[in-house]
Amino acid sequence: MLATMPRDGRLESTLAMLADPYRYISSQCRRLGTEAFEARIMLQPTICFSGAQAAAVFYDTDRFRRATAAPEPVRATLFGKVTVQNLDADAHRVRKAMFVDVLNAAAVQSLVQHTSREWHAALSGGTAQPLYELTHCVLTRAVCRWAGVPLSREEAPRRQGQLVALFDDAARNVASHFRARTARGQAERWLAGVIDNVRAGRYTPPADSVLAAVARHRDADGQAMPSHVAAAELLNVLRPVVAVSVYIVFVAHALAMHPACTRRLADGDRRFKLAFVQEIRRHYPFFPAVVARATRDFEWNGLRIERGRRALLDLYGTNHDPRTWDMPERFDPARFLDRALGPFDLVPQGGADVRTHHRCPGEDVTTALMSLFTDHLLRSEVIPGDTELDWRRLPALPRGRILVKARAGIRQAGLADLGMGAA
Ligand code: HEM
């Protein structure tokens, strides 16, 4: 006997979701006593899922696909219309392998080294600077140099603005959304030109660079990607590396809010540092949800899901689900010290297997950069402003700017301290 799908009774729930984007799905699930309910979101009936068990069905590629799932405003800004996020089956697997391959362990180490050098250059001078904006600058320069994308000193601020707009402006308000659309057009044209130059032999990036890999990649049909597609995929690496700036702000926030953690980190406890980084990814908000579409009619947990129905998986709520996490609202890195993680427990960057599913291929890059900045911020003076989080902002950030400056008499972590040889 099938139960009726629980519903959020509103005619249209988009405004309710925008009023509390990270907690809307889990609070409705709690209210309705369910792991899945239906709501009208962006004018479409949508099944909202929360929790690790629901994540397992959401990532079942026999039941959900990605093509045509994401709303046009998301594809036009955040991730592009022709990118890996929109592919399924073989087309997805072959394109995804390119990302997994270029983001290998040696490449992650190399990006960390580039970033550390840029940080040293940017922090010198002794004045307090806003951490979020400073890391945009550091990460833009580092990621372009590392990826083999040419970027002159004059061009850097403009390109940095475009990369930041894609994740910081996409969903904040109507005016900023249109800035993000414009930025995507400009950034894709810039990088399509770079890809054309590589393919025509006018510019030769290092053979093992991301740019070279994207330019020569062949899709499942054996064809090279058209330059505008290759450009959008290159952006799929540049943009999220700069977006790690959001997590770097949360590293600084957590250091300021949890002095006991800061003391343990300052003592050089490396295992605790990894746990600290994982807890930041679990505890703090970033992407509220991911989206898919049902491939066929099926039943799940006694509920009927119709073919073609759009579905949202609640990432923030799954990371705070009391069935998976003890006292989920508490910031407690120690919970990661002795814990084996299931594929759907910790999902700030998606779940399931990275090669065969849409899970983010940048998790190692993200945790490595967060670890690097944990070291750097421990050696800097961090001046927090209003520490309350703005939960309506997408992505959420503390209400007050966090400032950072070099601490007098304290040497910044050099590459030797990070186990990477001389700077
Ligand atoms: C800043 C921190 C990051 C967060 C919060 C994040 C989050 C996510 C999420 C939620 C997804 C979608 C998962 C899904 O649809 O199931 C995703 C996909 C993706 N991410 Fe990340 N990500 C981050 C960093 C990175 C980095 C550093 C890179 C590359 C260097 C990257 C590249 C990608 C790509 C290419 C996809 C699409 C994967 C696919 O569709 O198969 N991300 N990320």
Spell out the blueprint of helices and strands.
Layout: H1 14-19, H2 24-32, E1 36-41, E2 44-50, H3 52-58, E3 64-65, H4 72-79, H5 89-102, H6 105-123, E4 129-130, H7 131-147, H8 156-168, H9 174-199, H10 210-216, H11 227-257, H12 259-266, H13 270-283, E5 289-294, E6 298-300, E7 303-305, E8 310-314, H14 315-318, H15 363-378, E9 380-383, E10 389-390, E11 397-398, E12 403-406
Parallel strand pairs: 2-8
Antiparallel strand pairs: 1-2, 3-5, 4-12, 5-8, 6-7, 9-12, 10-11
Helix pairs in contact: 4-9, 6-7, 6-15, 7-8, 7-11, 8-9, 8-11, 9-10, 9-11, 10-11, 11-15, 13-15
The site of protoporphyrin IX containing FE has 26 residues, from α5, α11 and α15.
Structure overview:
There is one protein chain. The protein is an alpha+beta fold and 423 residues long. It has helices at 14-19, 24-32, 52-58, 72-79, 89-102, 105-123, 131-147, 156-168, 174-199, 210-216, 227-257, 259-266, 270-283, 315-318, 363-378; strands at 36-41, 44-50, 64-65, 129-130, 289-294, 298-300, 303-305, 310-314, 380-383, 389-390, 397-398, 403-406. The strands form four sheets. Strands 1-2-8-5-3 form a five-stranded mixed β-sheet, sandwiched between helices. A three-stranded antiparallel β-sheet has the order 4-12-9. The model is unreliable at 413-423 (pLDDT under 50). Its cofactor is heme. Its EC number is 1.11.2.4.
